[in-house]
Write a structure and sequence with these properties.
Blueprint (H helix, E strand, L loop, with lengths): L5 H16 L3 H27 L7 H10 L2 H9 L4 H13 L5 H29 L6 H15 L3 H23 L4 H18 L4 H13 L5 H31 L11 H6 L6
Helix pairs in contact: 1-5, 1-11, 2-3, 2-4, 2-6, 2-7, 2-10, 3-9, 4-9, 5-6, 5-8, 5-11, 6-10, 7-10, 8-9, 8-11, 10-11
Length: 275
């Protein structure tokens, strides 16, 4: 079976969300660091590609950057990682259906937020600033320009941009859970992720790389970053937990209705903690 029906994906997501929430703190921190670094590497790749494109290409440049950015989420979901935006959907769904406690839910989101930040800033500083990949020329110009557009949004604009972003990112995670084949997982991840980047929505973990990368080069401030971080974090939470997690839980996992039974082999396939 290469594709699971939505009600089966809901059960798989509840299982994964429960496993994530009950993972050890040490494992969450390591996997969270890796996930933050993977998303940052995807963004770094997009910047290197977009910055060198001819100016007359216009919006095609953004589409090209959006097309390569999903490498980061593919690494998170297939190589292994704990990504805040994905957990905002999966762990929240597990909480909504009563599989975990509120304390377990909060613990996971807080640990993943911190570890994702450390991983993303690590890439921004050592690969961006120290190595110079975002520190000069057209690459620095692109980082400063992109960061400036993120920071100029009002609280409400940043919040709703965050909602739109994680509606799509959480759907990418959902579609990944819906396939048992690596090719299907990659395709499921790729297109919703590419869509959010091309639209220009704000992703809290991507911003953990982009804005600090500009700060390390002497642009903007940490105070400005915090004013962006708060609404985007909240918007991403609503996008993942409400528009995906709660929506599908209310349909497929409501009281008295169980997801379609899965074989033990299928269950084992999705008992991993990646995503």
């Amino acid at each position: 079976m290469s594709y699971y029906k939505p009600q089966e994906i809901a059960g798989i997501t509840a299982d994964n969300g429960t496993a994530k929430a009950r993972n050890s703190a040490g494992a969450v921190v390591v996997l969270g660091f890796l996930a933050g670094a993977f998303i940052a590497l995807g963004y770094l790749l997009a910047i290197r590609v977009m910055a060198g494109a001819p100016e007359h290409w216009g919006t095609i440049t953004g589409l090209i950057g959006a097309a390569v950015f999903p490498v980061g989420l593919i690494l998170v979901l297939l190589a292994g990682g704990e990504l805040l935006t994905g957990n905002m959907m999966a762990v929240s769904l597990a909480r909504l259906v009563g599989r975990i406690s509120t304390t377990e839910w909060l613990r996971n989101l807080l640990l993943v937020t911190v570890s994702n930040f450390v991983g993303a800033v690590f890439v921004a500083y050592f690969f961006g600033h120290v190595t110079g990949l975002t520190g000069s020329g057209i690459y620095l110009d692109k980082v400063v320009d992109l960061a400036g557009h993120k920071l100029e949004d009002s609280f409400l604009q940043a919040f709703w941009s965050g909602v739109g972003c994680n509606w799509l990112v959480a759907l990418a995670v959902w579609l990944c859970y819906g396939s048992s084949q690596i090719s299907g997982k990659i395709l499921g991840i790729w297109f919703p992720t590419m869509a959010f980047v091309a639209i220009g929505f704000q992703h809290v973990v991507a911003n953990m790389f982009l804005i600090p990368a500009a700060i390390f080069e002497g642009y903007y401030s940490w105070g400005e970053y915090i004013l962006n971080f708060i609404p985007v974090w909240l918007g991403n939470l609503v996008g993942g937990a409400v528009f995906v997690g709660a929506a599908y839980a209310s349909v497929y996992l409501r009281a008295g209705r169980s997801p379609v039974a899965r074989t033990s082999q299928q269950q084992e396939s999705y008992s991993n903690k990646a995503g």
